[in-house]
Amino acid sequence: MVSSTIVRAIITATALVAPCAAEAENLMTAQGAAPAAPADAGQSPWQMRLRALGVITNDSGGVDGLPGSDLSFSNTLIPEFDLSYFFSNNISLELILGTTYAKVHGGGSISALDEVGETWLLPPTLILQYHLTDLGSFRPYVGAGVNYTMFYNQSGKSARSLDVKNSFGVALQAGFDYMIDDHWGVNVDAKKIFLRPDFDANVGGADVHGKAKLDPWLIGAGLTYRF
What we know:
Layout lengths: L1 H16 L1 H12 L15 E11 L4 E3 L5 E5 L2 E11 L4 E7 L2 E9 L6 E8 L2 E7 L6 E19 L4 E4 L2 E13 L4 E11 L3 E6 L2 E7 L4 E10 L1
Antiparallel strand pairs: 1-4, 1-15, 2-14, 3-6, 4-5, 5-8, 6-7, 7-9, 8-9, 9-11, 10-13, 11-12, 12-15, 13-14
């Protein structure tokens, strides 16, 4: 179930984003710009990173039909793994993997609920990146892509039950690698994911619905390895 959903999410994300790499280079060529240089012949197109990642959520959301209701979510620190494939020295596709959890708290007119419940999140994200390569060992990049977040192991606390719905989101990214040698480097990275899933809950026997506006910042640092 969770594993088959991950596969479907990765396939869908790849279908949505991967064609953009070829289109980006075709557009640059059509406009008279020099096409991106091919990846170095002596270097593998594959790269991986391992980061420590801070997940900082936006505290917003609410319950439908309850004016003044608000939601907040816990922040977490997690490990994150990503794998990149370089189509050229400038353009790559990065798959980001990690899992985290969020405690959901009521606020505003529902602050008396305190901790509503807890859910785990599995948010595979596929990002098309553009790298600057003429700055020596310093290699900044920007990216944009698609995220599909799956919610699992959900449980209520003041709510009898909590069911946050799986959701697509847009991801934006900026960061840099500082390469120590041809293979190893250090990485600093920031991503913003626009994630606003719907949810159902049962509170005191009443079924309620709403939207959780998590919109997290993902701030990370770690190691880069180019094969």
